[in-house]
Design goal:
The complex is a heterotrimer of chains A (436), B (381) and C (77).
Chain A: H1 7-10, H2 20-33, H3 46-60, E1 65-67, E2 80-81, E3 83-85, E4 99-102, E5 109-111, H4 112-125, E6 129-132, E7 139-142, H5 148-159, E8 175-176, H6 190-200, H7 202-206, E9 216-219, H8 228-231, E10 234-240, E11 245-246, H9 248-256, H10 276-281, E12 289-291, E13 295-297, H11 307-311, E14 316-317, E15 322-328, E16 342-348, H12 355-371, H13 378-385, H14 387-394, H15 427-433
Chain B: H1 32-37, E1 41-48, E2 51-56, E3 61-67, E4 72-74, H2 75-89, E5 92-95, E6 101-105, H3 108-120, H4 159-168, H5 170-174, E7 184-187, E8 201-206, H6 218-221, H7 224-230, E9 236-243, E10 246-253, H8 263-267, E11 280-285, E12 300-307, H9 314-330, H10 337-344, H11 346-353
Parallel strand pairs in B: 7-8
Antiparallel strand pairs in B: 1-2, 2-3, 3-6, 5-6, 8-11, 9-10, 11-12
Helix pairs in contact in B: 4-9, 10-11
Chain C: H1 5-18, H2 26-30, H3 38-50, E1 54-58, E2 63-67
Antiparallel strand pairs in C: 1-2
Helix pairs in contact in C: 1-3
The chains are: A alpha+beta (436), B alpha+beta (381), C alpha+beta (77).
Chain lengths: 436, 381, 77
């Protein structure tokens, strides 16, 4: 018999998509049965009370959580989000319901041994409810009480060799795509870069000194599966400089219908037989390809959109001179509108220990920490002080690749040192030539 | 329930403390075939919906079975994932950026057996536990935020709206019958913890009422300068008012400047803004992240407001269906939703989807607004 | 000019006590030491946190520093 009646939530148990309500209910039963005789460190009915509190929100159309203030582990300014119920007398099991963000391994591969360890810990000291994964990438553990926080942190660091992720005005947990581990498109080792920078910048991740949050994301190629160009202040996207490699026999294979086009990503019969001209040549955004029995690519005009490679992955491969483009300043709309990352470095080799990339990052941080207003993302600072200012602080030379088009207003704020003779002029000299 | 200590001593927090160690090294978690072939992959192919095959230059093959699931997952379900991975995958498993679970095996036969097994597992309530799909030109799992399950400023629930959306669009999760992938994202308020602003379809919670000022307690529980500083539009100022015969310190809010972000509520619990009638959903469409064919682009607001209708949000389901149905019928192969809308023109998008165009959809927020108005004689009747 | 940690520490504590608000952004402190590097200021703050003199306050999206126990929003609400 459930502790709380949840007639509204029960309606989210039907339908094909996995029901979080059914899952929380099964875990509520599991906790009550407690066949493993776990000495639960937070109330046994935490899941029941979460369902009860959520049902109340479904009735009221309003949240019943309060923000938490100072909750965290000692010495860290992030990694824990404090949460309290505004109806603790009705739902004592979730009176405290804090979240812990655990830094996920790059690429999100796991062994079941590690996951079971985490599951046991979270059963013992938390609600047993998690997010795999949070929006930034962390393993998120939902729901524990204040006295458990240090205990959990102790176990994570001492027994699991694992640290917390970021929150607040600091470096947020970096995230990456699976990269070269299982993808032929990846132009660099996203996991190694992600892991290295996460470790090199632990102080920035745990002890806030930034005006606001700062996110790193690493995409292995321009397909952008981890959405870095939209979701990270500093986005690294794999690219290459030389020619797309073509296997003409495999191209013919696609044309003949031996291989499924677009790597088999379409299963709708309405598209009919593969037509290389219609589906590849004509869709190329730069029109740099042709097909006359053999595929020709004018690589100089290619902008590496990946369409042809995505469509014929057996036949076409990324070039060999690989690296990444760096983009800065993506953020969600608040306050001044959404921003995507703007191209700062068209090409950088991506090689351990990644000093060239770190140099750019640190120059950007120095600028933002010096000039950024509180709660101002770096993308907003770029808008406020101008893109040329970012070039100045990073020491990067302006390049036509930085813009889609040149400016359409002439309001260039020349500096005195740019103009021969400077700005200090003598009115008497002027007056000799120009009477009043 | 006796407190069990790890040995941590709160009076000496620095004693034996381990910090700044970061995450576990990714290589510890690579399945052997991944470790062996990293950087040596030749090509991939989707064998059928939910099964991918990656071929290494040396000839190795890895078959990945992808299944969807709620982002909110209990450790009971997590242990079931582990049982499956132990049985089929040598104890390895991974998650995708979009909350899907991936199981890797070495033959197509095993992948098919695993797919059948995953599709056979159901919750007591009847829904799938591990529906296989989410590949190719279809609708994969939704990335989303916390909502009423865990957040203090949401304008809607996340897990519930996502469940409704995926139920409605489920056929496109298990098939690859659309012109191109459709990426759906959900965020519960305009702060967008899950930045949804570049999604093919974005579901966004939105408040429409400024905060209520709880004069009785404000000065006792809030630091007024922090509440003032929290407002991104500068709409809050300190003031004094009469409350029950006493003069109290409080704040005044310029209501027509409020953008309903809730940042003041985060700093000051005496400024709540949630409201059953005021809160609801905004639908945005046509964004993308990939650079394939066209540039990444922002999602546009196509429905200004849908009321919160828990638990099944029928209007949301209907609107999603309208957008996806029109797109599936009209777009060209490889054409993303936003590319389709741009090709036919947004005026035609509203005609084809049957969505109503209202004045709220015309941008009037600061400078970028002008660039979205039409400065040409070219438009469609 | 290198920062004198002992003097900087006193200046930070006095600054905190002199204000009516109890939570401060990191750059409120860097403004106290216009000639010092940000990392030097951060080191002093980290020491104060580790010695339990100061503590962090986090809204989830932004983080601030304050004297331990000061202010109106505490963890035990």
């Amino acid at each position: 018999m459930a502790k709380h009646q949840t007639p509204l939530l029960d309606q989210l148990e039907s339908g094909p998509w996995p029901s979080f309500v059914s899952d929380i209910k099964q875990h509520a039963e599991f906790r009550h049965a407690n066949e493993g005789k776990v000495e639960y460190q937070i109330p046994v009915d935490v899941c029941d009370d979460l369902l009860g509190a959520l049902e109340l929100s479904y009735v009221d159309g309003e949240t019943h959580w309060k923000h938490g203030g100072i909750v965290g582990v000692f010495g860290y300014g992030g990694g824990v989000i404090g949460r309290y119920s505004d109806s603790p007398e009705k739902f004592p099991g979730v009176a405290h319901f804090h979240t812990i963000r655990i830094n996920q391994p790059a690429g999100k591969y796991y062994t079941t041994k590690y996951l079971r360890q985490l599951a046991d810990l979270w059963d013992f000291r938390g609600s047993g409810l998690m997010n795999l994964h949070g929006a930034t990438g962390d393993l998120v553990c939902l729901g524990t009480t204040t006295p458990q926080l240090e205990e959990i942190f102790y176990t994570l660091t001492h027994d699991f060799n694992t640290d917390l992720g970021g929150s607040g005005g600091n470096l947020r947990t970096p995230a990456d795509c699976l990269g070269q581990s299982r993808c032929e498109f990846a132009c660099y080792d996203t996991q190694d870069l992600c892991h290295t920078l996460t470790n090199d910048y632990q102080d920035e991740l745990h002890r806030p000194a930034f005006p606001y949050k700062f996110k790193f994301k690493f995409d292995g190629c321009p397909n952008g599966c981890v959405a870095s160009i939209a979701r990270s202040d500093f986005s690294v996207i794999g690219t290459w400089k030389d020619e797309i490699k073509v296997d003409q026999d495999a191209v013919k294979g696609y044309v003949k219908g031996d291989f499924k086009p677009n790597a088999g990503a379409h299963d709708n019969p309405k598209w009919g037989k593969f037509d290389i001209v219609k589906e590849v040549i004509d869709l190329c955004p730069t029109k740099c390809m042709s097909y006359d029995g053999a595929l020709k690519i004018n690589n100089k005009e290619c902008t590496r959109c990946m369409h042809c490679i995505n469509t014929m992955p057996r036949a076409l491969h990324i070039g060999d001179e690989r690296g990444a483009s760096l983009f800065v300043g993506a953020k969600a709309p608040i306050l001044d509108g959404a921003q995507m990352g703007s191209l700062l470095v068209p090409f950088v080799p991506v090689e351990s220990p990644y000093d060239e990339i770190k140099e750019v990052i640190e120059k950007l941080w120095d600028w933002w920490m010096e000039e950024g207003k509180n709660r101002e993302r770096i993308g907003e600072l770029i808008k406020r002080q101008g893109f040329p200012k970012m070039l100045e602080v990073t020491g990067i030379k302006a390049d036509a690749r930085h813009v889609l088009e040149p400016r359409s207003n002439p309001y260039i704020f020349w500096k005195e040192e740019d103009v021969p003779g400077g700005w200090q002029r003598d009115i008497n000299v002027y007056r000799k030539k120009h009477a009043l | 329930m006796a407190f069990i200590s790890t040995g941590y001593d709160p009076s000496k927090p620095m004693e034996g403390r381990i910090t700044d160690i970061g995450p576990r090294h990714f290589e510890e978690f690579y399945p052997p075939v991944i470790k062996k072939n990293k950087g040596q992959w030749a090509y991939h192919e989707i064998c059928e919906a939910g099964i991918l095959m990656h071929k290494a230059k040396g000839g190795d093959e890895v078959y990945t079975v992808r299944c969807g699931g709620a982002r909110l997952i209990s450790v009971t379900l997590l242990r079931e994932v582990c049982d499956i991975a132990d049985k089929y995958c040598g104890g390895y498993v991974r998650w995708t950026t979009r909350n899907n679970v991936e199981f890797m095996v070495d033959t197509l036969a095993k992948a098919k057996e695993l797919k059948a097994d995953l599709n056979s597992r159901k919750f007591a309530g009847g829904s799938f536990k591990f529906p296989v799909g989410g590949t190719g030109a279809g609708i994969t799992n939704i990335v989303h935020t916390q909502g009423w399950v865990h957040c203090h400023t949401p304008a809607t629930d996340a897990s519930g709206t996502v469940k409704v959306a995926m139920d409605e669009l489920f056929e496109h999760f298990t098939k690859m019958d659309l012109p191109a992938p459709v990426r759906v994202s959900m965020a519960c308020c305009l702060n967008m913890c899950g930045a949804v602003h570049c999604s093919d379809i974005a579901i966004l919670g939105y408040h429409r009422k400024p905060p209520i000022i709880d004069n009785k307690v404000l000065d006792n529980i809030c630091e007024i300068p922090l509440a003032v500083a929290a407002c991104p539009t500068g709409a809050i100022r300190p003031t004094k008012t009469e409350h029950e015969g006493k003069t109290v310190n409080t704040v005044a809010i310029k209501q027509d400047r409020c953008m309903f972000c809730g940042n003041c509520y985060t700093m000051c619990p005496a400024l709540p803004l949630s409201d059953k009638e005021g809160d609801g959903l905004v639908i945005m469409a046509g964004g993308k992240i990939s650079n394939r064919i066209s540039r990444p682009k922002f999602s546009k607001v196509v429905v200004a407001f849908i009321p919160n209708e828990p638990p099944r949000w029928p209007t949301l389901a209907k609107v999603l269906r309208q957008i996806v149905t029109a797109y599936a019928a009209e777009a060209n192969k490889y054409e993303r939703l936003g590319d389709w809308a741009e090709r036919i023109g947004w005026e035609r998008f509203f005609e084809k989807t049957g969505l109503e165009f209202t004045s709220h959809l015309i941008d009037d927020f600061r400078d970028p607004a002008y660039y979205t108005w039409r400065q040409t004689t070219q438009f469609k009747w | 000019m290198a920062l004198d940690p002992t003097a900087a520490r006193e200046q930070i504590l006095e600054f905190c006590k002199s204000k009516t608000k109890t939570k401060f952004y990191f750059n409120d402190f860097t403004k106290l030491f216009p000639d010092a590097g940000q990392r030097e200021v951060k080191k002093v703050l980290t020491t104060l946190v580790n010695e339990q003199v100061m503590e962090f306050w986090s809204s989830g999206s932004t983080t601030m520093y304050g004297l331990k126990g000061a202010g109106k929003q505490h963890s035990e609400e």
